[in-house]
Write a structure and sequence with these properties.
single chain, alpha/beta, Rossmann fold, Dihydrodipicolinate Reductase, domain 2, 2 domains, 9-stranded mixed sheet, 7-stranded mixed sheet
Length: 382
Amino acid sequence: MERISVGIAMNGVTGRMGYNQHLVRSILDIREQGGLPSRSGVIWPEPVLVGRNESKLRAIADRHGLRRWTTSLDEALAEPDVQVYFDAQTTNLHDKAITQAIEAGKHVYAEKPLAERLDTALALALAAKSAGVRTGIVQDKLFLPGLRKLKRLIDGGFFGRLLSVRGEFGYWVFEGDWQPAQRPSWNYRVEDGGGVTLDMFCHWEYVLHNLFGRVRGVQALAATHIPERVDESGAPYRATADDAVYGIFELDGGVVAQINSSWTTRVFRDELVEFQVDGTHGSAVAGLRRCRVQHRSVTPKPVWNPDIESTEDFRAQWAEVPDNEPFDNGFKVQWEAFLRHVVDGDPWEHDFVAAARGVQLAELGLRSSTEGRRLVVPELAL
C-alpha cells in the first residue's frame, strides 16, 4: 500500500501528557507498528516537536531519534508537509496558537479544555469552519476499556431504562511542602487556566453526552479546600482555583447523574475514577479498565438492620464484564481515528463544537456554584 506521510506540529510535548500519552504512546507507537492502515494507504505520522524550551526539545528528539524540532511555531507551521497542528499547552495558551494554525490552513487536534471561556471556544470552532479545516478535541475516556465495555452494555440493552449515574473521581494531590505535588502548580491558579471544574467538567460532558444523553441542566458546588500550596521551586502561593467540585446533571430521558471531582480526596475504590450506572434491569460499575455488573435476576435482597453485623460480601455479588476484544491505549485509538478523518474523511464527532460543549458545561458549573442555583444548559449551534 502507498505510504502517506502526514506532518504533525506537536506543541507542548515537553509536558507530561503531551510527551507520554500523545508523542510516545500514540504517534511514536503508530510509527513503531509500521504506520496506520487506512482506505487511502498507510498513514505515516511525521512529528515536528514545538515548544519554548530548547534543551528539553533537543533531549526528547535525541532520545527518540527525531530530527525535527523548533521553538518557533511560525517555522513549524510554514513546513509544507505539516498538515496537522496538535496543541497540548496549558489552556490559556490555546487560543493564540490554534488561531495561528487555522490561519495557516492546518487541521487542528487539541487537548481539552479547548479554551477557558465558551465565547473563545465558539470563536475557534467558527474560524475552523470558515477556513475549511478539520478539528478534533481529545476525549480519551470514551476510548478506554472500562467505558467501552459500559457502552457495549448500553447498546445491548442490559440496563433496561436508565435511571441514574454516580461518578467518583479524584485522589490526594500533595500540597508541595513536605512532599512534591504530582500536578503542576498552574492547575491551582485560575489566572493560568487552572481549576478542577474547567478540567473535569469537559470530560464529564462528553462522557455523559455520548453514553447516556445530552446534559440539560446542572447544579454544582465548587470549593478551594486547600487555599495555599507550594510550587515547583519551593515557593508558597495562594490557590485561586477550585480543587474540588460536586455536580448534579440532568440528562435526556430523566436520567440523573451525580459526579464528585476532587484533588483533595484519598482513594478507597478500585480505580481513580468509577461510574455506577443503575437501570431497571441491571447495574454496572465501570472504571478506566474494569467493568462489573449485577443483573436484576441475580440481585440480592438486602435488609436494613443496623443492630447486627452484615455478613454479605456485596462486591462478590457482581460479575466481571469480559474484554471480548483487545484494547489499545485510548489516546492512541483516538489519534488513529482523527488521522483517518484527516486523510480519508472518515466520520468524526469529536470536533471543536463538541469541545465547546465541554467548556460551556464548565462555565455553567462555576456560575451555578457562584449563584447557588440550578442552570439550564442551552443547546449549542454554529
